[in-house]
Amino acid sequence: MEIALTDREADIMQVLWEHGPSVVSEVRERLADPLAYTTVLTILRTLEGKGYVDHKEEGRGHRYFAAVQQQAAQHSALQHLTGKLFKGSTELLFAHLVADRKLTPQQIRRMRALLRDKSDKESE
Question: What is the pLDDT of residue 122?
Fold first, then answer.
């Protein structure tokens, strides 16, 4: 399942992934940018229409929750980015990330370990 999120949708999904089921006012309070209540509600309804969010009725309101896992959304976004900007090449994406960032020795060691583990699993 491809999961495509706008920046605002991603912000709202992040709130739901981090804080769990929430009513509109709770989502709104946890966003970095101040948005109107109706704007947050509209985005939640759009996300629900896409199948990324669902809700349960709570009194007169709704408590919204993520219907897709964060890891699935990350995977989909990475697939999209790799396909669109790096000609489908994970190697080009990785090379760009490594070349473009100031990595600490600890981060480099962790990346090497991840690559080594991946290589070991594929050779089994």
Answer: 81
Taking the mean position of all CA atoms in its chain, how far away is CA 48? 16
Tokens standing for 80? Answer: 């999209």
Amino acid identity at 29:
E
What is the tens place of the pLDDT at every residue in 52-105? 999 999 999 999 999 999 999 999 999 999 999 999 998 999 888 888 778 888
- B/e letters for 42-69, b = 16+ CB within 10 Å, e = fewer, are ebbeebeeeebbebeeeeeebbbebebe
Contact 9, 44 (CB under 8 A): no
Structure tokens at 9: 């949708």
pLDDT tens-digit map of 29-39: 999 999 999 99
Residue 40: Cβ-neighbour burial (10 angstroms; 0-12, 13-18, 19+): buried
CA–CA dist 57, 43 (Å, integer): 18
DSSP assignment of 53-69, as one string? EEEEEETTEEEEEESS-
**Residue 20 to residue 27: CA distance in whole angstroms:** 10
